[in-house]
Each structure stands twice: as C-alpha cells, then as structure tokens.
Amino acid sequence: MRTIGSILVATTLLFNATPTAEATAQGAIKLDNYTFDKFRAIPGFSLLTKIDKSYAYGEKEDAFKEICKLSYTVSNFLVGEIPVQEYGDKENSDLQERFGIKTDDMPAFYLFTGAEDAGTKFDGFADPSAKKPSTWDDEEDGKWEPPMIKDITADNLILWLRTKGVKMPSIGTIAELDEVAKRFMEEPKQTDLDEAKRLAEGDHKNDKKAPMYVKIMQKVLDKGKGYIQSESERVKKLMAGKVTPEKKDELNEKLKILSVFAA
Fold this sequence. Notes:
Number of helices: 11
Oligomer: single chain
Largest sheet: 5 strands, mixed
Strand content: 5-15%
Structural class: alpha/beta
Shape: globular
Order of helices and strands: HEHEHEHEEEHEHHHHHH
C-alpha cells in the first residue's frame, strides 16, 4: 500500500515534468500557495523551501541548485521552491507576506519538519567546528562565542542542514571525518579508524567520499604515514594521463581527501 508521502512525491515528479515548472531547479519541487502546506505536512519528511523571485539567478541560486542535486540520496527529505512574481498576477506574493520576507531579502531558506512546525529560517548559525582559543581569557576578553556563518553558499547550507539533523552529503571533503583524519595522523590508532568506519556507515552513508577516508587510514596503518605522499604523487600522475572525465573527478576527490591527511 502506497503512503501519502509516496503518492505526493510521485504526483510532484509528474507535475515537475510539465512545462509549467520549467523555471524550477532540477531536483526541486515547485510549490505555491495551494501545495506548500500539503507538502510541509507529509508525515516523517523534512522540507527545505526556498522563497525567491521568479527566474532567480546568480551565486545563491547556483548554491541552491547544488543542494537540489545532492539531496536526492537523503531519505525522507524534500527540497522545494516558491517562486514569487513581482509583477502581473504576483503569484505566491501571499506566501512572501506570510513569512514577512522583503523582496531585497530574497532568497530566504526555511526548513520544516512537520505540519505544526513554523519553520526554521537560515539566518546565520554558530560555526560548529570553531573551538575556543587556548589563549582566550574570559575575564579579560569576555565570554567566548563561536563565529557566525551567514553567507548563503552550498557548503554553508549543507552544514546548517546537518546541524538540524538532515544527513546531507558534503562537497569536497567531510568536516567530521577531516577532524578524525587530522587526529589520526598525529598518532595512527585503530580507535580512530573505527570511528571513521562508524561515521562512514552511519551519518555519511550517502556520501561516496566517506569510504575513501577509511581506506586511506587502513593503508596508513599498514604502510605508515609515507603512504599519503606516495599515493598523492601516484594520483597526480594518473590525473595527468588519459582518464575519463568521471574518473578524473573521482581522482580529484581522492586528492582533496589526501590533502587533509597531509595537512
């Protein structure tokens, strides 16, 4: 028996295949004042919604498109956009007013986790990787607070979603595994490798880059720290040769991760 969620998703995929949704980013659901609350209420699903001008463009729109492409592997998570017309019929301007969004403040991003959830707006968040400096003196310097991340980029949106429990794959390298890798290179231990395996099989199971960390750490345990340099040189030579674009992208990802171990 099909669930309400699967029926709505199937309906939306069909709808988005029609010309009326041609301005919608690939991987996103086009929402309006008729459909928004229905999708927000799908049981067990989270919904990231972008409210923006019709036919948006620029760096923030590119960041949104990247999120759309990466989100397809994430279970129980949907991405939608509400295009607001500035002229003519001014479609969806009522939703813009409902959320109190000024035109100059668009795009605005909201995460919804159910029908009763009023939504959490991306409005800046504390950098989860920031650490209090060892030289910081609360009496002299005041209470330490982590820096705020406010720029709308694909990396920042992914990091924000992960702090909200959405298991988004990362771009480039994976912050949590980067920390394990750096600690591991100080003194390679099986316990760090085990933690990397746990993260790769758990929070980052949808990210194809995660297993690379595990393989590299195992090689370091088997062959020593010198493996990082020798493998980096080998990968660079392969990239300089005749390889398919897909293989080159894969090798480039590995090189980025190897650079984390080398740092």
